[in-house]
Write a structure and sequence with these properties.
The protein is an alpha+beta fold. It has a three-stranded antiparallel beta sheet with strand order 1-3-2, with no helix packed on it.
Amino acid sequence: MHTIQLNIDDSIFDKFMGLIEILPRDKVEITSQMDYPSISFEEAKEKVHRAVNSISANKGIPLNQAIEKVTTLTTKIVEI
């Protein structure tokens, strides 16, 4: 068995899933990971504002922790 990770644009996701669904179900396992909640534009804008302001105040989380958070925000994982 092989594992691949794909980042698929929302505009073609349904078409892609339709293609995957024609494969034998006992041979393909599809797992989605959505580790982050949706936020509004205003919430995102406020978070960016706070993050930028915290730079000069030397506040925040360590770089390796930030990178780990980003890398774990995987949108789609397909195992074949």
